[in-house]
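By way of example, we now present a protein record of this kind:
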Amino acid sequence: MNLTNCRRTTGFILVGLPSIMEMERVVYASVFLIYLLCLMGNGLIITMVIRDHHLQKPMYFFLSNLSFKDIGHTTTFMPKLLLNYVSSNNSICFYCCLLQLFFYFLFGVTEFFIITLISLDRYLAICHPLRHSTIMTSRICLKLSTSAWFGGFLSIICQVVMIANLPYCTSNIINHYFCDVGPVLKIAGGDSHLIELLGFLLVVVFIMSSLLFTLISYLFILCTILQMPSTSRQHKAFSTCASHLLVVSILYGSVFFVYLRPTVRNSSFSTMKAVSILYTMITPVLNPFIYTIRNNEVKDSICRMLGRKIPDP
């Protein structure tokens, strides 16, 4: 096909969520409920960390970054997804699609860096408690979080610029519920092999190294837990680590399934859409609960916010 005289499309059509017979309204009502829970849960954490000086510690600073990321991540596509359903109009403008793609991956890649920082903080707090406060100062925490966000920006900006300059002549229908790299490249003209290679290297280098560092940190943490004299402390620490690793498993497993592939030209996105729901909708809701549900400091902070008396331990 001659792409010389190809005119850039003004917009795309999003196919939407996977079809479930006679349950479309239930699916979109569930999406709305998930988005609402995400805003409430993550918004509560950010509010507590800002207002309660007892929570102004490295762990909660990184957790508030994760909560801000979760709100931003889901906001990049959920409002548009719900609006498309209400208006029965699945269109999205060309530059809106690029912005959605950019912010989706900015928040997405940044999440892996933040989770790595949380595991690093937990490693220092449990394995080297005497050195934790001297290493994880507020200045160091700010530098680490800034590096995480800047790393997320650098990881995607080049791909977005290259995707923006591809011709789109054959089709304007994106087989997804948001503008993801794979479905967008599948309808693009021109040579996209370099973009696909950059995306593949991004997963292999940044995300796999993040996973490796996180797993090593928790391995050292578990070894330290086994040396604790108190059985009750061991049980509590084990259950906390297990819940954290559950989120890590869901997040990394689904991302590897969707993005750890060298080419998208012959990919089918029906299964990928279903799997991507795990890390685009489920983990942002789980994060605030998993990281705080067994945390007494967070429970005490909620009691203080509600004006209740903190129960005796």
In short: Residues 300 and 310 are 6 Å apart (CA to CA).
